[in-house]
Design brief:
With about 375 residues, the chain is α/β, with parallel strands linked by helices. Helices cover about 45% and strands about 15% of the residues. It folds into two domains: about 130 residues, Aspartate Aminotransferase, domain 1, CATH 3.90.1150; about 240 residues, Aspartate Aminotransferase, domain 2, CATH 3.40.640.10. Helix 7 packs across helix 8 and helix 13 packs across helix 15. The chain binds pyridoxal-5'-phosphate. The site of pyridoxal-5'-phosphate has 12 residues, from helix 5.
């Protein structure tokens, strides 16, 4: 860890912050640019919103599109992955009896979204028990493929899972699904900044990613890609000025009424910060340190979800704390209050998991503090 980089973040030094994964953390240069845009708007609110904003948003879309290898016209800015995926899930033309295959490792809010669709549209949402340590594209596709039935209309998966911090190798699966006219909807909330994203190769029908997690952009900055074949069927969550017969995908879906667009406008600065201060070497260093933390916890009896003999691919991991989901909130509160460790405790499949995020500002003392606290609490 480069000590200077820690001071680039606004984080409270009294806490061991091991939860970049939930809401990210925004470094000062990016946060200042975010505030710059808020002030800039207030100097001439109407001029800014009417004359300047459309061009500024187009520039942001272009920068982001280049970063994730997507066509900017097929990409909209969104406030978060949940709302972006809500639009897709609620818009698709489901027929009664359609089946959506998914995993047992999906994010809670989006499981709720599917529950809602199941009730509204009489479809079936089938979460499959998927491996947590599969690295092979074909093997992964082969796990899911036998489950496909004539009713399977869509596959919904996280690119990086929330409870288990696993990367699903889903590219081959997506290609096979396309050949069978099965929609693929990918929740990439954690992916930007963790994975080298190339949406043109990945080929998903819909892909949402957050900029406010691992790209360190301000909260409320995300994107949604939708394949051209599905764009016409998308209904925005809010019908506003852009909606209408000759509206483009971007016009229909990006304007939900007056809002603070500063977080979107700070995305290019976040991309600059990412390139200059984070980037591949720092990312690899974070992964190495996450591996050290995973090993350290394993030696203390906390079994990692991805076994130690498999190298980590991302700088977050989950380990099993207990073989019951009891007391998750108490463990979380004790870690925070008594040990000054901010880390999520996630009940999953009758176990409590601890999910550890390592970002460039973390020192080894952060995960040592976690290990020490867990040892005192569990042994
Ligand atoms: C896999 C996954 N999907 C979606 C989300 C939701 O992100 P947001 O609250 O920004 O919509 C999260 C948040 O942690 C997540 O881990």
């Amino acid at each position: 860890m480069n000590p200077a980089i820690r001071h680039q973040f606004l984080l409270d030094d009294r806490w061991h912050f091991l939860n970049h994964g939930s809401f990210g953390a925004c470094p000062k240069p990016v946060f200042e640019q975010y505030q710059f845009w808020q002030r800039e708007l207030e100097t001439q609110p109407v001029h800014f919103m009417i004359r300047r904003l459309p061009g500024l948003l187009q520039d942001v879309r272009m920068r982001l599109a280049a970063f994730i290898h997507a066509d900017p016209d097929h990409l909209i800015l969104a406030t978060n992955a949940t709302s972006a995926l809500n639009m897709v899930i609620r818009s698709l033309p489901w027929q009664q009896g359609d089946e959506i295959l998914s995993s047992d490792q999906e994010y809670g809010a989006l499981r709720r979204t599917w529950e809602y669709i199941v009730q509204e549209k009489a479809v079936t949402f089938r979460p499959l028990r998927l491996p947590t340590d599969c690295r092979d594209e074909r093997e992964f596709a082969d796990c899911i493929w036998p489950e496909i039935t004539p009713r399977t209309r869509a596959i919904f998966l996280s690119h990086i899972t929330s409870p288990t911090a696993v990367r699903f190798p889903c590219e081959t699966l997506i290609q096979r699904a396309r050949e069978e006219n099965i929609w693929t909807i990918i929740d990439g909330a954690h992916a930007p900044g963790q994975l080298d994203l190339d949406l043109s190769t990945l080929g998903a029908d819909a892909y949402a990613g957050n900029c406010h997690k691992w790209l360190c952009a301000p909260k409320g900055s995300a994107f949604l890609y939708v394949h051209p074949s599905l764009q016409d069927g998308m209904t925005p969550l809010v019908i506003s000025h852009g909606w209408g017969e000759d509206a483009t995908f971007v016009r229909s879906n990006e304007w939900y009424g007056t809002q603070d667009f500063a977080a979107y406008l700070a995305i290019p600065t976040a991309l600059d910060f990412f390139r200059n201060c984070l980037g591949e070497a720092v990312h690899q260093d974070c992964i190495r340190r996450a591996e050290a933390a995973r090993l350290h916890l394993a030696e203390r009896g906390f079994t990692p979800i991805i076994p130690e003999d498999k190298a980590l691919e991302i700088s977050l991991f989950a380990s099993v704390l207990s073989s019951s989901t009891a007391m998750a909130d108490e463990v979380y509160e004790t870690l925070w209050k008594e040990h000054q460790v901010e880390v999520p405790i996630i009940p999953w499949q009758n176990q409590n998991l601890v999910r550890v995020s390592i970002q460039t500002y973390n020192t080894d003392e952060d995960w040592w503090a976690l290990a020490h606290a867990l040892e005192r609490m569990f042994h």
